[in-house]
Inverse folding.
């Protein structure tokens, strides 16, 4: 990566009115500022300035064909960046501010750098007081993907952002840990029928209830399931230490996880496990463990998932193991299943 980005001073800005004013000034001047939202930390730049937006791709090492989400201070700002649609209006009125991103027809005010050349644009209003205060203070639509190096687990604390992007961005607005912990749900409402593009912090069932229609499923690239062989999956959100994910019913997956961990230890490997709360005592004391929520409490697991993956990754281990943390076909379990499948180097059907 270019030395220009390795030599930037990254300022740590406090969660105060003054900190927000400084962050807003940097964004207005074309800078790159990481800020908290309710989902994960975002890396923001002026969405109306192509050069500022290109800085995001350089700082993250993100491929130019991966489009960004535009963040707004309120739904009334939508007309600056997108054309509205009936389904879009209904969902914006019901769920904004909140962890829902809408894909809508793009207006010419939005540079093609933001949308990777698409004639649609992804937009949301975050439900986080600091994010809203910052967006309001800039007076601009702000393009912001997750504030991590491309492919790494998303950041849920300012420390995660610093670990990935220190020296590559202008500032981090420090707002403490995020609450939802997984990225927004993305729904394409630009066409005739609404389509789920990415499961996330807002459960798909709530969206279907609000609209009174079923969402079309994600296109095949995004719906990677357990039937796929290792290596075919799009790897994303991934720790550097190889993660093996065991999928299948809990009665089968749980003992399989225990046996895979035991045999890795028997082979002399240093092992880490991502665990549900009530399973923490099942494993050899030598196993490094990170505990998330319970099978029936996916909110807690979502809030802890990326921090747990980062902690395991930083522990100097050879292999990581996990199983599904909730029902992969329902509620927030869908988002957890999606992130775990993309984080995994190998998937074992139990
Ligand atoms: P991130 O902000 O890193 O969580 O990633 C944003 C994601 O939003 C992209 O990777 C795409 O999957 C999705 N996205 C953004 N804009 C569009 C769009 N115009 N059409 C479809 N998907 C989009
Ligand atoms: Mg991301």
């Amino acid at each position: 990566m270019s030395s220009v980005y390795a030599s930037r001073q990254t300022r740590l800005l406090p969660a105060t009115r003054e900190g927000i004013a400084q962050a807003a000034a940097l964004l207005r001047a074309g800078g790159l500022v990481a800020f908290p939202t309710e989902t994960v930390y975002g890396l923001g730049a002026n969405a109306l300035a192509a050069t500022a937006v290109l800085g995001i791709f350089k700082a993250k090492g993100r491929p130019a064909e991966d489009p960004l989400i535009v963040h707004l201070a309120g739904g009334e700002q939508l007309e600056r960046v997108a054309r509205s649609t009936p389904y879009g209006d209904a969902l914006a009125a019901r769920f904004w501010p909140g962890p829902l991103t809408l894909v809508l027809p793009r207006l010419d005010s939005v540079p093609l750098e933001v949308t990777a050349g698409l004639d649609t644009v992804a937009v949301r209003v975050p439900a986080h007081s600091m994010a809203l205060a910052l967006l309001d203070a800039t007076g601009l639509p702000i393009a912001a993907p997750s504030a991590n190096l491309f492919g790494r687990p998303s950041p849920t604390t300012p420390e995660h952002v610093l670990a990935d992007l220190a020296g590559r961005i202008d500032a981090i607005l420090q707002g403490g840990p995020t609450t939802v912990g997984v990225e927004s749900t993305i729904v394409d409402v630009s066409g005739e029928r609404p389509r789920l593009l990415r499961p996330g912090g807002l459960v798909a069932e709530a969206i279907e209830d609000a609209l009174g229609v079923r969402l079309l499923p994600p296109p095949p690239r995004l719906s990677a399931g357990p039937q796929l062989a290792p290596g075919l999956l799009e790897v994303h959100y991934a720790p550097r230490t190889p993660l093996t994910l065991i999928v299948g019913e809990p009665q089968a997956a749980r003992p399989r996880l225990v046996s895979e961990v035991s045999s890795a230890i028997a082979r002399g490997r240093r092992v880490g496990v991502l665990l549900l709360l009530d399973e923490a005592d099942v494993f050899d004391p030598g196993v490094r463990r990170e505990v998330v929520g319970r099978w029936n409490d996916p909110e807690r697991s979502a809030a802890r998932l990326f921090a747990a993956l980062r902690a395991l990754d930083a522990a100097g281990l050879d292999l990581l193991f996990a199983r599904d943390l909730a029902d992969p076909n329902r509620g927030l379990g869908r988002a957890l299943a999606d992130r775990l499948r993309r984080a995994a180097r190998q998937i074992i059907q139990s």
In short: The first strand starts at residue 11 and ends at 13.
